[in-house]
Amino acid sequence: MNITCSHHDKSYDKIFWYQQSDGQDLELLGFLSFKQPLVDRKGFTVIGDAEKEAFLVVSSVKAEHSAMYFCA
Question: Does the domain made of 2-71 have the CATH classification 2.60.40.10?
Fold first, then answer.
């Protein structure tokens, strides 16, 4: 599963990905700074160019991945 996040602010070079499970607080999954990803959770990958867009990739979708996903 791929989730896309894009923006048009040329001065912004970072995209953060969050997961919010039902009834839970937002949890940082990882972020992309320029083209360098940092991911804190197994099974998730962040790719792209933070100056334009980023993709959150879930390698093997499972029931526990059922949540709202946000980028900022």
Answer: yes
One-letter amino acid identity for 71?
C
Beta bridge partners of 20: 68
What's the pLDDT tens digit per position in 7-22?
Answer: 888 888 889 999 999 9
Are 56 and 66 in contact, with CB atoms under 8 Å apart?
no
pLDDT attached to residue 2: 93
Answer whether 26's CB lies under 8 Å from 72's CB: no
Quick count: other Cβ atoms within 10 Å of Cβ 15? Answer: 25
Q: What's the confidence (pLDDT) of residue 26?
A: 96
Instruction: Mark out the alpha helices in 1-72 (DSSP H runs).
Output: none
